[in-house]
Write a structure and sequence with these properties.
single chain; alpha/beta; six-stranded mixed β-sheet; 9 helices
């Protein structure tokens, strides 16, 4: 509430608001008066102007990283735990969007399926990134796909959908052991801490995200009913996705969408001889969710 007398032009110049932006602002004039010089003055205004900067700056996000291990299979357990570590490292880096480890990234190892379902059905953010690594299978009769949990429990992968309007879901499952010489994912520490600070990266990510279409996007490690390969360094798909996302030789813009990363990953997996190919699905044909950031 403004309780001082300002002319219309003085008021908005004082707050640095251009006249063009006023058209999209919510302004309620409660009291206009004329002074002795004929100036139109406002003695009280309810001012509800919120710039796009403030809108995207106030957005909230959550990354949920889920892994299901297999105690009797040491290599598989090492694989999914490596996936979680690598994916979390990527997200918390500048290139991954500078997610905050303490309150934006949640790691769930061998969660109870019922508790997980209840939790996911209750959350709502401006955007969520849900990543699952573990076992899964497809029902060729119904066309549905499932993710497996401990104690032989399983859920439809749609169960991981929450109430958020913008959702990216990545699945590396339906796995089988494959010996592969795929280059190991490594964290390039000096490069990860690029010239831009964490706050700059976060602000840029939210700016891009604000202009992203509402959608539920699924990126899967293989085609329907096709097994996905892994080794003790992680799923071959996850390793390929992270490596391709960080490949600066194929990167010219300030960010890569998940669609761009999917295409690069698919081409790379085919080139190195990985037999399974990823899929990108969505409720809308819009896959512009930001995945990799590179600002100086």
């Amino acid at each position: 509430i403004i309780e001082r007398e300002l002319s219309f032009g003085e008021y908005f110049n004082f707050y640095g608001v251009s006249m063009n932006k006023i058209r999209t602002s919510a302004i309620k004039i409660l009291n206009w008066t004329l002074n002795e010089h004929g100036w139109l003055l406002c003695s009280r205004i309810e001012f509800d102007f919120v710039s796009n900067h403030k809108k995207h700056h106030a957005m909230k996000r959550r990354a949920i990283l889920i892994a299901t291990t297999e105690k009797s299979n040491k290599v598989f357990t090492e694989s999914v735990l490596a996936d979680i570590d690598n994916f979390k490292t990527f997200l918390c880096s500048n290139y991954g969007g500078a997610w905050e480890d303490t309150h934006e990234v949640e790691t769930l190892i061998d969660p109870d399926s019922e508790k997980l379902q209840k939790y996911l059905s209750s959350i709502s953010y401006d955007c969520t990134l849900t990543y699952f690594t573990g076992h899964g299978f497809a029902d060729i009769n119904t066309g549905k796909e499932y993710i497996s949990f401990i104690n032989d429990d399983h859920l439809s992968d749609d169960t991981l959908i929450n109430k958020s309007l913008k959702q990216l879901m990545i699945f590396d499952c339906c796995n089988s052991l494959i010996q592969s010489d795929i280059p190991q994912f490594r964290v390039p520490i000096p490069e990860y801490l690029s010239a831009a600070g964490h706050s700059d990266v976060r602000e840029f990510f939210f700016k891009v995200l604000y202009n992203t279409d509402d959608n539920i996007v699924k990126l899967k490690s293989s085609q329907f009913a096709q097994p996905s390969g892994y080794n003790n360094r992680g799923g071959l798909f996850t390793q390929s996705l992270l490596n391709c996302s960080l490949d600066k030789n194929k990167f010219s813009d300030k960010f890569k969408t998940i669609h761009t990363c999917y295409n690069l990953t698919k081409s790379y997996m085919n080139t190195v001889g990985i037999t399974h190919q990823p899929r990108l699905l969505g409720r809308k044909k819009s896959f512009n969710f930001p995945f990799m950031i590179n600002i100086e």
